[in-house]
Structure formats: structure tokens, C-alpha cells
Model the fold of this input.
Amino acid sequence: MKKSLPLFLYICVLAGLGSLAACSAGQDQDVAVATVNDAPILLKDLREELLKSSERKSDGEFTRSELEARLGIMIDRKLMVQEAVNLGLANDERFLKTIKSFWEQTLIRELVAVKTKQWSETLAVSDGEISALYARMRYKVYVKEAHTPDPRVAEAILGRMRANGRVEGMTRRGPLFAERVGMYDPLYNVFDMKTGQAAIWPEPGGYLIVMVTGKTRLALPPFKSVRAETKRYIFEKKKEHAIDEWLDGLKTASRVKVNAPELGKIKRVE
Done:
């Protein structure tokens, strides 16, 4: 059974927390409320732990049991970390790789959170966009498509599609649903087309040639009942697009080199 904290330590901690509430922000934050083999446990860290454990949003009075439990956990954690260091685990290659991976993931998560907050303040979804998506969701669409890097070949393929001629490499797709096709995907346009219509759209590395071969009307819930959900969907798609554009901008402004010869030495499963 875990022993309670000594009374004098409890009193010191309680006094420290009381002084924190009374002092101006940032003052006396680095006071040590305990030491473990000369390693300090700071008042600010204990305060953060208490706030997290009790889910409070501001400082207030903490019970003796709260102080004892949380400080006891922090002392135990400090002891285990010190023992791990003494055993040399901190220098183990697997540990260092794990820490590096965790650090990178945490940084990326925080960065995305910051950018998401920025985009949440600038991205907007209009009533027209909501109505337009709802109208597209009324249909499932079937298409035939082909790809080419050459604009002249694209025009020739378009002509053969319209004449129901044979097109090498042509594929058929469907049913397509508006909420499953990316808003920034060229195929998103097929929901505004009629059966038999065909078009050419640019895509990364070339051109996409598409012809609508079928369009079936679907029964949807009333617009009012799905409006809020549709708006959230559009916002999330806009945010995803903003992330892609942001990353593309970072790549353009950076020096990224791929060592193709070394990459070719890696065994791949075909």
C-alpha cells in the first residue's frame, strides 16, 4: 500500500499552490515542490498535472488526496526515468528511434492543429455550395474514361468516345457518388453532365477524357435535414485541399532531392 506524503511536504505543496494563485501570471513558476535524487519537481508541472487530472480549466483549491496522489505519481515516474537512465536504456538505439518518431509525430500533429485553426478562421462554405452538392448527390453516375499526356491524342479519343468507337486503355467506372468523389477531382464535374456528354479535363501529368454513359436519380432526405452535415463535409474537403496546396507550396519552396540510384537498390515486390 502506497504511503501518504509526509505532512510537512503536503503543507509545503499546498502553500506553494496557494501562492501561485495569489501571484501574478508567470511568477514563482519554477519553485520546486519536491526533489528526487536532486532532480526537482516544479510547482508549474504539478499544477499542470493537477489541472489535467481533475479536468479543471482554472486554478482552485485542491484536496489533500489530490495533491498526494498526483505528486506521488510524479515522484514514481521520476524514479523510474532515473533508473532507466542508470541502466543505459536512454542510449539504446531502439529507444532513440522511438523518441525521434514520437517527437516528429507530435510536432506534425501540433503543426496541423495550428494550420487547421487558421483555416477554420478563413475558409467559408456558402449556401450556394451546399445547394450545389445536394443537387449532385441526387444522382449516381456511370462513365467511361481514358488518360493521355498528349492534348492532340485527347481530342482524338474524345471523338472516338462520342462515336462509340474503340479506345485503347479506356475503362468504365461506376456508380460514382458525389460525396465519394473529391470536390477538386475532375470527375466531380460529371454530376453536372447529361448522359452522352463527354469532356476533356487537365489532370496531373496530362488529360482526362470522360463520357457519361448513365445517370440514375436517387432518393435523398429533405435538404433541411442534411444541410448541416453537407456543410461540414464541404468544409472538411476544403480543409484537405488547403493542406494539399500548403504542402505543395512547401515542396516548391524547398530543395527536395531523391537519390534514384540508391532507391533502385531496394528490393520491391511487384
Observations:
- Strands lie at 32-36, 39-42, 139-148, 171-177, 198-203, 206-217.
- The first strand starts at residue 32 and ends at 36.
- Residues 19-26 have pLDDT under 50 and may be disordered.
- Helices lie at 7-22, 43-54, 64-86, 93-122, 127-136, 151-162, 223-252, 260-263.
